[in-house]
Amino acid sequence: MKIALVQPKIDEKYGDRQGYASTRTPPETGLAVLSTYLRTYASEHDVVCIDPVKTDDVLSEQISGFDLAGFTDWFSNHRRVVSLARQVKTLNPSTRVVIGGPNTSGIAQLIIEKYPFVDYVVERDGEDALLGIVNELPLSQIPNLWYRHDGKAKFTQSGFVDLNRSSLWDFLSFENLDSRLAEYRETVAQSWEKDFDPWLVPPLAMSSFRGCMKAARSGVCSYCTSAETIVRALAPDKFWAQLEVLKDRYGAGPVYMTDDIFPVSVTRMERLARAKPPCSMPMIRAYAYMPDFIGLDARKMERMVGALHTIGAFNLFFGIENFGIEQITRANKAAVSVEDCKRVIESLGRAGIKTTMAYLLGLPGETEESLSKNLSSLEVLLATGYVERVYMSVVMSLRGTPMFDELCRNSAVAKGYKQSTGKALVTDDDPDYALLQRLSVEHLTGLDPDEVNDWMRKMVAKAEQHLPPHKIGAFMLEI
Fold first, then answer.
1. Most buried one in 76, 120, 163, 354, CB count within 10 A?
2. What whole-number distance in Å separates Cα of residue 192 and Cα of residue 209?
């Protein structure tokens, strides 16, 4: 069987949302994991990871020559995924089409119900689902799979892959690998220079932990699609072996750890630190959860920072989101103080670990007072000198999140959406998120959308006093 895997380019309406100086994307880690898994457990089949930098017509023509076409679906490329799937099926009805990826957790059933040219949708872990399809297993035995039975959408059962059963992944199945890595490698080659900037190009990425520890402990945040409460971790030796593959074969420098939360505990970080090979010198950027750090006593904080320094963390991304107590607690997230955040950021910074800060404006209950508090906090935290990146956006309630469900239940939001789009929000698999952001601000806060944008501009202006433009991400409301 000939299998094509592709992560199509972002839809035009979303523009460039990468947040790096370059718009060139590195090889996709998700496709690398899937293709390696298939080569390991179904080696008789041919797998090709398609370079998405082609026109849609060229892509669909190429993919229609395969027996199975797998598309990675994000909210930002969903329209293109559906369009390509339709084109492929039109060109070759015998090509089976499967869609997976982060976006399917909120729209899998809708896709099966609305699009007859899509054969299967995978929800969450895709390795064993794709393997089952390739090996022609009875559909009912394949985990995480949506399909049609008697004309109706049907789900099999949830399954969770054992990360330590999987082989170390690589990019051997990728088209045009050298050209896709060229810009990254050029940047890494400059890493010996004093003014090396790891934020010029998107880094290679890997995952060491699946599931969200915060969601497992206290439930998912209202605006978050990462609702997986079954947590799994790579063994320390396998963690380092995977990093070595990326370094030795592909010249990896900065590596982006895609875990929902990388430093899940002091114990986990110390185990990774102890297992580190003597000659390994990684550069790791990762997500972290600020309330966990604030809750550490002085001794545990010292241990955590020491372990992260040993591992090679150079930047931690904290989704503080909002310093308004009402706003953040309504989102099912622990409130934190500016002073506590400042203390954590300075403790990390003194060890050479800089911080990325993310703010979410327009959360339900947002007020002028809470926005003013966010602006003041940004000034305090940037003044530490240890914050090297900031992201500011208006909350986007993606399908599959509790907040999206809340908007669907709000009659004023649902009515406004129907009047503007002619579609029912509850059944729209490709929502107009820009419109939904505005409606959310109008009906769930005490603010006007223009006011939110004005505060965003103030925050950008404050950030520009400390950081260059490519280290500031700001996504305003479309008015």
1. 120
2. 30
Angle separating helix axes 402-409 and 433-444, nearest 10 degrees: 70
pLDDT tens for each residue of the chain, 479 residues long: 999 999 999 988 887 545 666 667 789 999 999 999 999 999 999 999 999 999 999 999 999 999 999 999 999 999 999 999 999 999 999 999 999 999 998 899 999 999 999 999 999 999 999 999 999 999 999 999 999 999 999 999 999 999 998 899 999 999 999 999 988 888 777 765 656 777 878 889 999 999 999 999 999 999 998 778 899 999 999 999 999 999 999 988 889 999 999 999 999 999 999 999 987 778 999 999 999 999 999 999 999 999 999 999 999 999 999 999 999 999 999 999 999 999 999 999 999 999 999 999 999 999 999 999 999 999 999 999 999 999 999 999 999 999 999 999 999 999 999 999 999 999 999 999 999 999 999 999 989 999 999 999 999 999 999 999 989 988 888 87
Interhelix angle for 433-444 vs 411-421, to 10°? 150
For the chain, list the domains and their CATH numbers: 2-155 (3.40.50.2300), 203-475 (3.80.30.20)
**Is the pTM above the cut of 0.85?**
yes
Rounded to whole angstroms, the Cα distance separating 287 from 356 reads 9
CA distance 278 to 200: 28
DSSP structure class, residue 425: G
**Contact between residue 355 and residue 315 where contact means Cβ atoms under 8 Å apart:** yes
Q: What is the DSSP string of 38-52?
A: HHHH-TTSEEEE---
Burial class (CB in 10 A: 0-12, 13-18, 19+), 291: middle
Instruction: Kindly list the distances between the CA atom of residue 118 and the CA atoms of 68, 131, 261, 275, in Å, as whole numbers in the listed order.
Output: 11, 18, 33, 44
* Nearest alpha-carbon partner for 284 in 310, 247, 259, 257: 257
Report the C-alpha gap between 382 and 456 in whole angstroms.
16
